[in-house]
Every structure is written in structure tokens, then in C-alpha cells.
Amino acid sequence: MRNVNKDNITEVFTGYFGEDTDPRAREILASLAKHLHAFAKEVNLTHEEWRQGLELAQWTGKITTDERNEFVLLSDVLGLSSLVDMLNSRPDATSSSVLGPFHVSNPPVLEIGGDLKGDYDGELLLVEGAVRDTNGRPVAGATIDIWQTAPNGLYSSQDPNQDIHSFHALMTTDAEGRYAFTTARPVSYTVPDDGPVGKILQAAGRHPWRPSHLHYIIKAKGFHTLVTEVFPDDDPYLDQDTVFGVRNDLVMTYTERRAEDFPKGFKLSGKVTEPFLSVKFDLVLAVAQIS
Amino acid sequence: MRNVNKDNITEVFTGYFGEDTDPRAREILASLAKHLHAFAKEVNLTHEEWRQGLELAQWTGKITTDERNEFVLLSDVLGLSSLVDMLNSRPDATSSSVLGPFHVSNPPVLEIGGDLKGDYDGELLLVEGAVRDTNGRPVAGATIDIWQTAPNGLYSSQDPNQDIHSFHALMTTDAEGRYAFTTARPVSYTVPDDGPVGKILQAAGRHPWRPSHLHYIIKAKGFHTLVTEVFPDDDPYLDQDTVFGVRNDLVMTYTERRAEDFPKGFKLSGKVTEPFLSVKFDLVLAVAQIS
Lengths: 291, 291
Known about the structure:
Chain A is α/β, with parallel strands linked by helices.
């Protein structure tokens, strides 16, 4: 098209597509360009604003490392990650929620009843539950990849004083689908706000806080993999999670219990002498469609 | 909001905004999120596609250097750069067109009638014209920043065999607003397609070609700066510029003229013994609003 203008550019864009390519790729690119063009038109984007946007993108690229993926964080604070989670949630299964940028590879295996707290400060938290299918039948042999912040609000990959595998574990459910472990209660924390994402939050007048949570990835043969989180119902940031991760079915009560009620079968090294917290988080997996 | 869902997430996003921030920044972020969410919903984006998109973004960051800005190129091939140009074009002025990623700082000054071709191969092209205001009055003392590919299709920043300032010049218009220079005819070329942008073009079944052009940035006191390009009317890629830069008023005829008709007042070192090409490109600037 020799005379591209602001009214025909989206049509010109799709008119340049070839036909011998993946239709899904073309569908995604056409929709992306359409909405990108609609955005620029709606706000009447100036050259200076365009330049600032590209500078933010470049900065995002520069700050991204294997340990800190600022593009994931950008997707998180723009609500895109949560939206993709919700678009791909399975009916009747536990809601999915943001993966976040802090998952590590090859987490250490932890047996049922094992402990993640070790010598760390923080409140002792007992986490237990079961993995079931949408008909309530237990899913045995499901693997649960668990990770969380240390009591200082930092993930191991953010904190040189932690071992890279601290507060990371891989657990396998028993014949009744059960899992259980002890840990230090995770805390509310701020997403990294010293980079371009921080700049965006500042421009929007938004805080960088997330409510406290435990991350889970649950995999089981024949089921859709579930990436999710569990939140305590008394967290002050529950109603304004900066990455939009909270769903009603992921909010649980952390119950305070007496030291003498600490159950048997856990692998804590010392004796429990103070009150502890306890939460039950059951998970429902959806059967994968056979394609 | 404790129960974010795919129907309310855009509203939740803007609901998190603070009030003590720049309203324009909030307007841009709200519109960006709205259209980004609409895109993800329209295509029902999967986690795997989201992950692939983030990988492309990361790759774009990694490949970007001071000499190669892949984010600009991405904006170019998605039509965003051209759209921003068109949104900011001034009525009655020459159309603006893409800046592209190959402009260099501090181009060498070239006097009127100067030469850019030197010992390079390629067809000799005489370029001349005048800068005027929207009432047809000459704009004296306007600076024209000119750059183009060498006859091998590469800009100086892409080609270790060229001096960084080859085919770059800064010229100032005379009392009648005129400018003139000789150069080697620029050629059609491909945008860099060995990176993420190439991957996107491939996925869309699009070629990476741009029609031949000269780049101009024209600055003059009291006028809006104009970033534009001039294209020859016989280029095979005129109707499918991969960065959407062509506008009707930027397409000019390159006339073949006899060697003996080469005009006086040019600074070419040797005598013109073969036919040469000649193009006239007049530019109209819009008066800047006094704010």
C-alpha cells in the first residue's frame, strides 16, 4: 500500500501476511497489531511518549537476567499474567495464579512432613492438604513444587545470604493424595521496584506490595498442570495485590494452635514450645483432554 | 479486589491508581492495559504463547545495542512507529515518516552542493529542493540531517567497511530555503532479520524489504521538526514497505539526465561523463504553536 494512513494501517498490516504460515501465529499478530494501533490512536501517542516507552522497554531488557526477569514482572503488574491464568483456568479445578519470576529449577525433594523452616526466624506454619480430581478422588503421586519468601521478604534468588534452594521443595502426594510440611510463615513483600516496573508503578501511584503467599506448581499424569498460590485471609494487601493474583478460592485461614497440639509425623528437629499456625489447602486438578 | 476475574481485571487495574500522579501517565497506562487485556481475551492467549512472547521480548532486549535498537525495529514492523508519525503529522506540512534505527549523532556538516558519494559505486544522484512554510515562504537557515544506505544496502552503523559518518550529512538551507547535494542512489534493502523481528516477519509470511529512500530530519526555529523520507516512484517495494513508511507525497520521480546537463555549482571531484539521476524534493514545515 503506497498511501498508508492512520485509518487503514491495521488493514494494511494484515494485508502483508503470507498464506503459507501458521494461522494461529497470524491470528495472534493481527490481534496484537489491531489493539496496539487502537491504543496509540486512543491516547494520540506523541513521539516523545513513544520514545519514552521504547526506553522503558530497553531498560527492561538491560535489567533482565536469569535471576530477575523484568519482562515477567512487567506482565504481572500490567495484569497480563493473571489474565492469561484466568483465561486458562479449568472449570471446577482450583484457580490458577501467577507463576512470578522467582521459581528455581530442580528444587530439592522433600518428603511428606518435611521442614522448610530450619533455623530461620519467623512464625512456624504447618501446611497440609490433599490433591483431588474434580470428582473428589485423591490424586496419588502428584508432584507439588513449592516456593516462598524467607521471613525477610526475599526469595532465595534475590538474597545472597540464602542458599538458592532455601524455601524451595518438591513433594509427592501419598496414596490418599495428601501432602504436608512445616515452614516459616511467608510475609507480604514488595516486588522489585528499582527498575522500569517500579517506574511504572510510581507513574500510576501504585504500591509494589504483594500479600503473603506460598507458590505451588502441581503436576500429575493425566491432569492439567496447575500453577497457583495460597494466601492468608488476614493479609493487609489481599485486596490490592500489585500483580492481581488473589482469587476467592485461594484465600485460606491460618489458624493459631497451641504448642501441645502440634501433630505427630512431622520432621521438625526441635520440640514445638510456642503456638504455631496451621493452614489446610486442598487442590483440585482437572483431567487433561486426550487430543 | 479479592476476586479478580477476566471480566473485571481492567477495571481493577485502573482502580489501583493513585490520584497524586500525572493524569496523562495514568491515561496512557489505563489505555495500554485495556487494549493489552482485550488482545489476550480476543485470542484466548495460552500460557505457552505468553511464554513465547516473553522470550521474544527478552531476546529483543539481548540483541539491542547502541548500534542496533531491535525495539525500534519491532515498533517499525508492527506499524506502531508509522502510526505515531501519522498521528503527529501537521496538516498542510510534508508527511512525516519513520526515523528508523540507523540515525547517527553529530553528522558531519556538508555545504550546499556538497557530495556524499565520493568513491562509492552506484548511480550518481543529484538531490535538490527547498524548505518552505505552509504559506510557500522559504525557510532560510533550516538544518537538514540526511542519511541513507551505501550502495551495498547497509547503513554505516551496520557495515564495518564504512566510516560511521559515510552517507550522513547536516546541511543548512540558504536564503531561499534551498538545499542540494550529490550522492549514490540509495537501494532497496532488508531490515535486519536475524533476530526476533525476523522471527515475527517469518511467522507472518512477510518479507523484510524496504523500498529505497533517503532519510531527512528538518529543524528550523519556530517550526515543528519534521522526520521524513523520500522514495523513488519506480521501487518494487513501494507498495509493500515492511515498516509502512510510504506516503503519496513522499514518492518522487528520479529523472535520468544526460551527463552534459549536469548543473554548475556542485562540488563533485571528477567530471560527470555518464547519465545521472536527478530528484527534486521540496519540504513544507508547519509553524510550531506558541505554548
